């Protein structure tokens, strides 16, 4: 007799991966300490095994509060809906919201 594990199909495995991805819970994006916020986000991505750059970018975008979107809307428009990759988004947000060190 076959065990339930032998009934795994790409469909059921895909559903399991989707369930894990939906469990990523990022804190609201912080402009106060953006580098630390990204450390927290990346810990969540590792824990939930989120490796796709577009999926990571989507999670980050969904964590950005409405009042911050106007400050990044021009950059988002330049990128377009399907072209936003995690590395680009992270670099932009760090550049935009990390204060320069005081000399």
Keywords, separated by commas or semicolons:
103 residues, globular, single chain, mainly alpha, 5 helices
General description of the model:
The structure is a single chain. The chain has 103 residues and is mostly helical. It has a domain at 26-97. Helix content is 59%, strand content 0%. The chain has 5 helices and no strands. The model has no long low-confidence stretch (mean pLDDT 84). InterPro entries: DUF7041. Residues 26-98 form the DUF7041 domain. It holds the Pfam family DUF7041.
What does the secondary structure layout of this molecule look like, with pairings?
Elements: H1 10-22, H2 34-47, H3 53-63, H4 69-79, H5 86-97
Helix pairs in contact: 3-5
Shape: globular
Number of strands: 0
- Overall structural class, as computed from helix and strand content, comes to mainly alpha
Percent of residues in helical segments? 55-70%
Q: Largest sheet, if any?
A: none
- From the alpha-carbon coordinates, what is the Rg to the nearest angstrom? 17 Å
Poorly predicted spans: none
Strand-residue proportion: under 5%
- SSE string, helix = H, strand = E? HHHHH
Distance between the termini: 71 Å
Average pLDDT level: 84
Q: Tally the helices.
A: 5
Pfam family, one: DUF7041
Domain DUF7041: 26-98
Organism: Portunus trituberculatus
Protein name: DUF7041 domain-containing protein
Brief overview:
With 103 residues, the chain is mainly α. The chain is built from 5 helices and no strands. The longest helix has 14 residues, at 34-47.
